[in-house]
């Protein structure tokens, strides 16, 4: 007579058994709780002997090697709070360096260099590229210095240096520098205030932009004691210039004109009737003759080095119309090389 078979129920203690715990899981079925192999993805009879036999089968061992691996999965190591805080400080310092000295584009290579150079320190946990660096500059550094400057100025008297500029997209901007006495630093401070977009480039548009910027920093227009500008009519015009419109609201306002621009105008006016008109033509054409021709530069270098014991000539300087008195350096350079230049043009 065969030995009777007894029905055995699943025991949750088997889930902690050293032989079964890595692959056995409990699942609910119509017959109640039963065991399932998560490696082979099959239901196993709820008998301890059958579970052991399944674990010792070749099929199970092969699947377990593929899924579980030869060794248990190592625990992941996460940096501590102090290390993460040090990494955030390093990211902030790098972002401040980039904002002050260079382009945001270099931060990708800068961070990688820091990680390799200072390995084992807080730089190991730095994770920052251009997008994050730009976010730190715009959302953390800029608001901090904005509030710091705003609180430092307070109700002090101040002056503004104003100048218009145009970027490569032909969009107009008004650059503003503020001068004030800092009680915290106990000295006169000159610092950047704003680079505001100009919708209208006339005096009314400039006045509106200045008022908007002052309101942003909670500065009182009546505390403005002076402005420094160039000599353009939109700034210093006697009828509709910016200074005239500001003076209507601030009667004690002072105007300081650009000294370099004024000196350039004075020199131009003084030399108009005393120097030949062809001097500027000679300077411009001499620069153009060499600027885009390497063969002419090589020929002139040979002549100059032959006449000056092997020395190479300095390049001819361009007289720029927007660089005040730059014509002086161009004239001096041509005079110093006059003999060599004269011979070069005679041979050419």
Q: Which terms would index this structure?
A:
13 helices; three-stranded antiparallel β-sheet; 348 residues; five-stranded mixed β-sheet; alpha/beta; elongated
Q: List segments where confidence is low: pLDDT < 50 over at least 5 consecutive residues.
A: none
What is the H/E string? Answer: EEEHHHHHEEEHEHHEHHHHH
Number of strands: 8
Helix content: 40-55%
Shape: elongated
Amino-to-carboxy terminus distance: 126 Å
The description of the largest β-sheet is:
5 strands, mixed
Cα Rg: 39 Å
Mean pLDDT: 84
User: How many helices does DSSP assign?
Assistant: 13
Q: How much of the sequence is in beta strands?
A: 15-25%
SSE class? alpha/beta
Strand order of the largest sheet: 6-5-4-7-8
* Oligomeric category: single chain
Walk me through what this model shows.
- The chain is of the alpha/beta class and 348 residues long.
- 47% of the residues lie in helices and 16% in strands.
- It has 13 helices and eight strands.
- The strands form two sheets. A five-stranded mixed beta sheet has the order 6-5-4-7-8. Strands 1-2-3 form a three-stranded antiparallel beta sheet.
- A hairpin with a 4-residue loop joins β2 (32-37) and β3 (42-44).
- The longest helix has 24 residues, at 130-153.
- The mean pLDDT is 84.
